[in-house]
Amino acid sequence: MMRIMGLDYGTKTVGVAVSDPLGITAQAVETVTRKDENKLRKTLARIESLAAEYGVEKFVIGFPKHMNNDIGERAEKALEFGEMLKRRTGIEIVMWDERLTTVEAERTLMESGVRRENRKQYVDQIAAVFILQGYLDSLDMQK
After folding, report:
1. Which of 78, 104, 113, 140 has the maximum number of C-beta atoms within 10 A of its C-beta?
2. Residue of 63, 9, 61 lying closest to 33 (CA atoms)
3. What's the pLDDT at 101?
4. Own/partner pairs, 100-107, CB within 8 angstroms, 24+ separation
5. Tell me, what's the pLDDT at 142?
6. What is the rounded distance in angstroms from the CA atom of residue 46 to the CA atom of residue 68?
7. DSSP letter string over the chain?
């Protein structure tokens, strides 16, 4: 049984989700926040400790390509973050195309009646859930 962790990397936050031990469903864990976009040491440390706690064997990081498939600045930053995480933990990284996840996450929170002011704190976690669930579903299709 291996658990996979989904990460939604943003300028000030990283949404974290984790799979169940069977790798079927994704659950929200938390949103790791930082004061400064480039101050990643604590963020990396927190994710490393969550990975250890859950026995994670793979990270799936949202890769926000533009609709025309170009890789913009946000995608570059997500890639750099993935490389730092791999260097730090030695755990495999998968970059997962997540062009629509934040939109989906917002819609899901709206539909479930979460008030707008509370949405921000959950949207990154939910986006991480969508990223991870998309990846898990793609594995399922390959079976």
Report:
1. 78
2. 9
3. 64
4. 101/8, 101/62, 101/127, 101/130, 101/131, 101/134, 102/8, 102/127, 104/130, 105/129, 105/130
5. 67
6. 34
7. --EEEEEEE-SSEEEEEEE-TTSS-EEEEEEEE-SSTT--HHHHHHHHHHHHHHTEEEEEEEE---TTS---HHHHHHHHHHHHHHHHH--EEEEEE-TTHHHHHHHHHHHTT--HHHHHHHHHHHHHHHHHHHHHHHHHHH-
For residue 52, give both structure tokens: 């250890």
What letters, b where the CB count within 10 A reaches 16 and e where it falls short, cover 29-38? Answer: bbbbebeeee
Q: Which two tokens stand for residue 114?
A: 């979460």
Token output for 28: 């929200």
The amino acid that residue 106 corresponds to is E
